[in-house]
Every structure is written in C-alpha cells, then in structure tokens.
Design goal:
Layout lengths: L5 H7 L10 H10 L8 E8 L11 E5 L10 E4 L2 H9 L4 E3 L1 H8 L7 E4 L4 H4 L3 H4 L17 H10 L1 E5 L5 E8 L4 H17 L10 E8 L5 E3 L7
Parallel strand pairs: 3-4, 3-5
Antiparallel strand pairs: 1-7, 1-8, 2-6, 8-9
C-alpha cells in the first residue's frame, strides 16, 4: 500500500479522524490546512438517512449562500424573444434556443448553471442525457425553470448552490473559498445544512443528518458535530 505524501501527512497532523468537531473549530482546521498555491474551495459532505432509490426519499434543492461561493458562475439561459433579451440584460453568459441545443449536443458545455423558460423545456428535454449527469438540467423545483429569468440569473450569479442526494445517500456542495474569513464560511455552511434539513423528504425515517464533514480541495476531511450548527 502506498503511503501518503509529506504534504498530506502534514495536513492531517493535529486532526482526530474520529472526533466530531464543533463547526467553528472544524472550519478553522480546514482553513489552516488549505495551503495549496491556489485559493482552495471549501466543500461539505453530508451523509443522510435516506435511500434515493425510493422516490419519496429523494433530497434536492437550492440554497442561496449568504456570502456567495467565491467563484464566478457562468450562466446559460434557454429562451426566445423578449425573455432572451431579458436574460442578456440580466448578465447571462450564454443565451440561445435551437442553436444552444445544437452546441450542447456537440459536447460544448461552457457554463456552470443552466436556466430555461417553461416554453423551452420540450426542446431542452432532449439534453437530459447530457446535462442530467452533470447536475445542470433545469428543474422547476430548484428555480431554474422559470419565467422570471432575471431573478434566476441574479441568484445563480450571487451564490445559489444546487444540491442533490447521490446513490449512497450523500449530499455534497461547495460552501465558499478558503480565503473567506471564519465567520463567512460558518454562515455559508450553516445555510447549506439548514437548506438540506428543510428538504427532508416525508419518506425519511430515523436520524436524517447522520454525518457532516468539511474539507478543502487539497486538504483532509474534518468531521463536524451537527449539533453545533446553529440554524
């Protein structure tokens, strides 16, 4: 078995891999160990007591992080006519209809969020196999199928993060950058956990939020005590 490199060993030093840390202490540990040559993203992973194979246990939603994500979101909008003009005026990076469908089908996906007006969904539905696996398929449940494209673009640009439970019952998301100060990261993480908590499906039984962990892009995971998150 190969051993971890010196940088990884140093990053893990001082972290108890069993202990559940209070949120603020966990954030501090993650920030201290984010020492890559770039501004690392801080990520959260939550193990939920759900089985996504059952429709009544699916967890999906969107959260507007109070302090943003720290990254520039490229937004594509499927719209025509006045709504296309509205999207351009609101700052969408890419706006189109059939031409955009053709571009995406060809494998060119130069955006991080995708929004569509309801009338465009019969067209956009053709892209399910392309956009779905990437988590980019517009969905009315998370506000990305809407007639209010201006508000949707503003939310996407301002720090809206979509989340969706994976097969193993895990929800993951980005909650900011390591360069954020402690308070801003704590507020973002609390908002993310609150949104996932409120998205609890009716079919979920027993303990819903089972485990929470934080990490930076290149750093080790730090387990968080969910009871210390003030939501």
């Amino acid at each position: 078995m190969s051993q971890a490199g010196k940088r990884v060993r140093n990053a893990r030093e001082g972290i108890d891999r069993i202990k559940l840390y209070p949120l603020e202490e966990a954030v501090k540990l993650v920030k201290e160990r984010a020492n890559a040559k770039f501004d690392e993203t801080v990520e959260i992973a939550m193990n939920l007591g759900v089985d996504p194979k059952h429709a009544d246990q699916m967890v999906r939603g969107v959260v507007n992080l109070p302090n943003g994500t720290g990254r520039t979101q490229r937004v594509a909008v499927f719209a025509r006519g006045a709504k296309a003009d509205e999207a351009k005026a609101a700052g969408a990076d890419i706006v189109g209809a059939e031409d955009l469908v053709t571009t995406v089908q060809a494998g060119t996906i130069e955006f991080d969020r995708c929004i569509a007006t309801p009338d465009m969904m019969p067209l956009v539905s053709r892209l399910g196999k392309v956009l779905g696996p990437r988590g980019l398929m517009p969905n009315p449940r998370v506000g990305t199928v809407t007639t209010d494209v201006m508000a949707a673009i503003k939310a996407a640009k301002g720090g809206a993060v979509e989340f969706r439970v994976e097969k193993a019952g895990i929800v993951q998301g980005s909650v900011g950058k390591a360069s954020f100060d402690q308070k801003k990261l704590v507020e973002n993480i609390a908002a993310f956990i609150d949104a996932v908590s409120k998205a609890r499906p009716q079919g979920a039984k027993g303990t819903y939020i089972q485990r929470v962990a934080l990490s930076s892009t290149m750093g080790p995971g730090v387990k968080v005590d969910p009871a210390t998150v003030r939501i």
